[in-house]
Specification:
single chain, mainly beta, elongated
Length: 206
């Protein structure tokens, strides 16, 4: 009698194991990777982020069925900037996921540089691109830029440097012209740092 019971228990255990293998094969656990942008950060007064805030790498883990219907737009990443100071900061990161059937793996911190917010007034210079057609020349003494300066806001460490520049394309010009290019505030790399001109774009008028 007990021998038959042991056989029946073994048969039930084998059936459960076989069912688990079949179920897993049909609906295996998978992982998908995404990059999330932090929600608009709120920093202490007088501080700003230097450069772009890095994206948050996340891995979403769940069954194939759950991942098939998953919408990454339901995930929200937020950073806690309340304790940041000037310099490099480890900013705590929180991921909000409304789906309890999914596991979301993400770093607990992001390293983000912070600086003081400042303003600077820079002169505007003209950078001439290409050359005028043959037989034409620029009357440089009559070329003006309006306004001659721009005020920019941004990280204090990036405001001291070369002047603002407007690029004027000369190819094909054969007479007086008024252009309205945007001013680029170049640094030593060179590239445009995250400083925003407040006045209207300068207007070079040859």
């Amino acid at each position: 009698m007990f021998g038959n019971l042991r056989v029946k228990l073994l048969a039930i255990g084998f059936a459960i194991a076989l069912w688990s293998v079949v179920a897993y094969t049909q609906n295996p656990t998978q992982s998908q990777k995404y990059s999330l942008a932090l929600a608009h950060p709120v920093l202490p007064a007088g501080l700003v982020v230097v450069g772009d805030i890095p994206l948050v790498p996340v891995a979403v883990i769940g069954t194939a069925d759950n991942l098939r219907t998953f919408d990454v737009r339901t995930l929200h990443a937020a950073g806690d900037f309340r304790a940041v100071k000037v310099g490099s900061n480890r900013v705590p990161v929180h991921i909000d996921s409304p789906n309890p059937n999914l596991q979301v793996d993400a770093p607990a911190f992001l390293t983000i540089p912070i600086d003081q917010s400042a303003s600077a007034t820079l002169p505007v210079l003209i950078e001439r691109v290409n050359a005028l057609p043959a037989g034409f020349h620029e009357l440089t003494t009559a070329t003006t830029v309006t306004p001659a300066t721009v005020t920019i806001d941004g990280p204090k460490s990036q405001l001291a440097g070369p002047p603002a520049v407007v690029r004027v394309h000369l190819r094909g010009l054969t007479g007086p012209v008024s252009q309205s290019p945007a001013a680029a505030c170049l640094d030593a790399q060179p590239h445009t740092p995250p400083a925003v001109p407040r006045p209207p774009p300068p207007r070079p008028t040859p």
